[in-house]
């Protein structure tokens, strides 16, 4: 049979078609990239093969060409034996290729036998074609199932990649946020340390400010006992001179000497009394100026109230000579000694008295009424084993909304420069936290205010 016979060309076309079908069906460019150059040039290669067969009189329809093509096709499919559809395709084409190769050999080399059994070969080819179609359908389903599985795996892999990327991003964000929080924590801790230091400085400044308010009152109060000391000292000197003169006389008067000695003793007692008064004022001033926490000690609350009421009044008078007010005391003598920190409670009393005198001074300036008389009072009493101290004034009074905030740090109704807003806040802490007592306010605008302190007995 020559090369121009339809059987030879059909053999080439059948082989080329089979390779192209396998290329598309089994996705060979991806799975067997090394075969891709062959597939791209397959028609050129088979065209050259046909041309060469024509030049050299090669019969392409004999069994050798079919065998070579079949072996090459099966070898190519065997390269994909791990791919289930490829194994199914091998199973599908195996009967067809076997009959094709055997038929080609018998047709060329045993024509009589082929002719005698041509019907058998035709029926077998038909059966193998059905076989081929059936298994190709199965292979196609396997391919679709595998493609679906691969797509699902690809989606899962992409999802895992996205999740991993998100995880890394979240880990980075968490690490970054943790670093920021740690930095903020360190900054807050440092700010807290600075705040505590500033708070201590502010408290000490407030204490020193209240000490400054005491200065004028102390100067006025300490001047009285000093004047008494000076006056009685001068009188005592005169008495000593008279006694010396009397003792120098030849005719001494014992009654006069006894009288002079009695007067001298009384003077010395008065000097001692007023010296003690001055010493007490100085001691109170020193206690008031202490920075640290003091120790509780039995204290005469009545004496403390009376003394700091006078000091607060004279302190304000030193700033405003035109200011005059009535201040009174109603002290319960049965109160006795109360265990407290004197310098702290004195600081509270001074603040309340100073505020009271300031309130009546402001009302006097605002009303300008001749009948108004500024008045501040302090009273003490014992109730339910507690000492109750009430500081009252007939000043401007406190509005209801202001009363809710009056004990808050830095809240003040005074103009800028006249108050820090720490006085009542510190007073509240000293009484409630420092002494376990209470500090309450009762007030009516235009009528006055009352600050009520209770201290455990």
TrEMBL record:
<feature type="domain" description="Histidine kinase">
    <location>
        <begin position="217"/>
        <end position="457"/>
    </location>
</feature>
<feature type="coiled-coil region">
    <location>
        <begin position="148"/>
        <end position="208"/>
    </location>
</feature>
<keyword id="KW-0597">Phosphoprotein</keyword>
<feature type="transmembrane region" description="Helical">
    <location>
        <begin position="89"/>
        <end position="108"/>
    </location>
</feature>
<dbReference type="InterPro" id="IPR005467">
    <property type="entry name" value="His_kinase_dom"/>
</dbReference>
<dbReference type="InterPro" id="IPR003594">
    <property type="entry name" value="HATPase_dom"/>
</dbReference>
<dbReference type="InterPro" id="IPR003661">
    <property type="entry name" value="HisK_dim/P_dom"/>
</dbReference>
<dbReference type="GO" id="GO:0000155">
    <property type="term" value="F:phosphorelay sensor kinase activity"/>
</dbReference>
<keyword id="KW-0418">Kinase</keyword>
<feature type="transmembrane region" description="Helical">
    <location>
        <begin position="64"/>
        <end position="80"/>
    </location>
</feature>
<protein>
    <recommendedName>
        <fullName>histidine kinase</fullName>
        <ecNumber>2.7.13.3</ecNumber>
    </recommendedName>
</protein>
<keyword id="KW-0472">Membrane</keyword>
<feature type="transmembrane region" description="Helical">
    <location>
        <begin position="120"/>
        <end position="139"/>
    </location>
</feature>
<dbReference type="Pfam" id="PF00512">
    <property type="entry name" value="HisKA"/>
</dbReference>
<keyword id="KW-0808">Transferase</keyword>
<dbReference type="InterPro" id="IPR036097">
    <property type="entry name" value="HisK_dim/P_sf"/>
</dbReference>
<dbReference type="InterPro" id="IPR036890">
    <property type="entry name" value="HATPase_C_sf"/>
</dbReference>
<keyword id="KW-0812">Transmembrane</keyword>
<dbReference type="InterPro" id="IPR004358">
    <property type="entry name" value="Sig_transdc_His_kin-like_C"/>
</dbReference>
<dbReference type="Pfam" id="PF02518">
    <property type="entry name" value="HATPase_c"/>
</dbReference>
<keyword id="KW-1133">Transmembrane helix</keyword>
<keyword id="KW-0175">Coiled coil</keyword>
